[in-house]
Amino acid sequence: MSHSIRGSMLISVIFMMLLMAVLMSAMVSLTNRSSRNLAYETMALRARLAADSVLENAIYQQMAPAQDTSIADIELDINGCSANAGVNKSMNINTETLYYIRATGSCGSNELNVVRTLEVEVIK
């Protein structure tokens, strides 16, 4: 083989190695971003479910037959997530009372904290 062919093959091999290194670094970056998104989605779902749980509890307490006034705020710790719910406001409409109940669930740590808020209207 002549020197010019060996030189061009060497340049081709170096180029291919460089291209493979760039592709591998892109794959690592994509994998890291994907795992971060998965962690965020998991925390968001846990916060949503914590808010939903405390909201259901608040609705149940507000709709109890003996409950004539707005309930007190409820706070729960559920699997490392905190949740609270309470009546934001109420108004009388004819013979019924409309209650606005808001629940908030929060999950996470110092690096990643996710908060989800739910609100419903209940007529009693």
UniProtKB/TrEMBL annotation:
Keywords, ordered alphabetically: Membrane, Transmembrane, Transmembrane helix
Transmembrane parts of this sequence: 7-28
Organism of derivation: Oceanisphaera arctica
Keyword Transmembrane: yes
Protein name: MSHA biogenesis protein MshP
